[in-house]
């Protein structure tokens, strides 16, 4: 049939299955929107189907395998053979984006990957299509639903990281091997993609520094609540003059920050620029049907018309010593002169204190402090000196804070 | 020059001026993104410039006049002459959308209007381009910044509507004649546009029922706070079987609702569908530079490639008797049997009570109740009977509540 558009689907896991079902359910709507009816040309499973055959019969290849091998080979071959590609694969785009964008541009085809970052939230489209002429200053957000679920549960119940992780695994919010999620690697791939698109610059995954949430203590969450702070694992890409920083770290947010109310497995992304102030977008971060919906949106866009493929416009340095504010948790001996000694170290390193509270007495005494912004190297130097003070009863614990306060 | 794209700008108010400046600042970025450099072919002011001359010299006409006369004539002529059009004009699209979409489709040109609804929030693009194959169940949100500023101030300060309105006028958040904003007509035009796009159905402005915020009392906000409720003026378009409802009304939201934290002059829109759960988008609702940015995003999209013009796919009935939950404020005589009489009237009309609190004693006694959802006709009937009860000391005050509670 000349009026159908043939889709070759690679992978038949949760998302692949949901996608095939969704195409069946929404074929009429796609035909109404585009004039062409979608048809599944074939589905490649691990144990079944032949890639070359599916490629030969498809106009658009939909890659839902995940991982880079064999996805990388398949997607590259599809692009070079003149097929449009839709992928939900963050690792593929983060690790091989440059090569794939070049191949798409040379072949004159589209490569779309909305579902690779922040699930159903259309952040890729908004950055690439609404804001391509906007000088974006910062793109950041909660891009991993597993860790946000865990942090929300820890804050709500007071339970330990390991207890909540076990619960998340039972509920299907965390995988049996959760290390990519809880260690920050998953979020690193996503923020690398967003940084590349927002700043039109190559970003390789090994330039992204990341920390996870494995060391977050329940009492940090409890003390921080007293300051009106809630903890999120953030991916943050930010322009600094001719450079950018691209990082993943757990971070406290004040009440009123647009990301503070995002709870459970939801994701949310903010884009800041002088000419737009800010846009915040939130929604489910994962889920078979939600991811399949984002993939179908990309398919419809390809059928509807052309769109430029991402191209590098600048080559910005990736910098690491940026300014941050920190929360600092110190278990100290309860005696005179302790606070003075600590504030002297901070002052000597030009780190100024915004607020300080002492909790407990005697062997349970602890200082919880929030700093103003300072270069991280200076705070790091101060932290090194504080760790050596003889009256500390445990290693200091430091967590970044976004200083912005809202009414 | 063959590689420039010539823009004819109609109107040189706040947005027009900001747009001309922004094109100058971001010409390099537009050229990088699209391969073509934007150039202002001419600017039509009320007292200066000739429309036909600007039309003849332009590839894209950017309509920033506002109102429908002469904007309607200019835009229609531009489309018929084969020019793409970008407009920030909600009244134009809401009142003359059908005619303009037809003209654009016949001429094979694009008509884009992201800036007409919710300022810098890319809700039009997301509905039209990310979700065209999604069966949207509901689109709703805070689409008027003036009223959200006023309600936020009233809730924060306890001041009266008229005092806060005067303050909003001083700060430039409300116009000298604020009636379109505070009466709900501005939000009605915006939700009519969103309903049309979300449901692919014609919606005329006179089918949109709207209420404003002029009658909101400070004590309603104070009592509602006790239930954890905050008040927003919402535009709501919702599917009901083969029909839709399209309405604007002040509405209480429980704490934890994604729209509850949206304060001051910000806008936010939610889209709900079974296959996406929900997407929430927020950002500044107005402002010269923000609106100009949304307009420039549309210009870049037109230069980047083609996109389908909105087309009617269905003709859905606009229904009015939908189910809602209500807050009810009653000033009553403080004596036995009063609550029983009121709950009997509600029960007779099959309206069930979710929570009730009595405040004050004697001449200051008042009952504040929140109902469960019921058809509005049934609640209206109950309200009519309650208003006639002899122990009421003032007319009852009812405000809708979105019942959904969040953790």
Describe this structure in words.
Two copies of one chain form a homodimer. Chain A has 407 residues and is of the alpha/beta class. The first copy, chain A, folds into three domains: 4-116, Rossmann fold (3-Layer(aba) Sandwich), CATH 3.40.50.720; 123-284, Dihydrodipicolinate Reductase, domain 2 (2-Layer Sandwich), CATH 3.30.360; 323-402, 2-Layer Sandwich (Alpha-Beta Plaits), CATH 3.30.70.260. Chain A is 38% helix and 26% strand. Chain A has 13 helices and 17 strands. The first copy, chain A, has helices at residues 14-34, 51-56, 71-80, 90-107, 123-130, 145-157, 161-171, 179-182, 185-199, 218-226, 288-304, 338-348, 376-387, and strands at 4-10, 37-44, 60-63, 84-87, 111-112, 138-142, 209-210, 229-240, 243-254, 266-273, 277-284, 317-318, 323-331, 353-359, 366-371, 374-375, 397-402. In chain A, the strands form two sheets. In chain A, strands 6, 7, 8, 9, 10, 11, 12, 13, 14, 15, 16 and 17 form a twelve-stranded mixed β-sheet that branches. A five-stranded parallel β-sheet of chain A has the order 2-1-3-4-5, sandwiched between helices. In chain A, helix 3 (71-80) packs parallel to helix 4, helix 4 runs parallel beside helix 9 and helix 6 packs across helix 7 (161-171). The longest helix of chain A is centred in the N-terminal third of the chain and has 21 residues, at 14-34. Chain A starts with a strand and ends in a 5-residue tail after the last strand. The mean pLDDT of chain A is 92. At the A-B interface, helix 1, helix 5, strand 11 and helix 11 of A face helix 2, helix 6, strand 11 and helix 12 of B. Strand 11 of chain A pairs antiparallel with strand 11 of chain B, so a sheet runs across the interface.
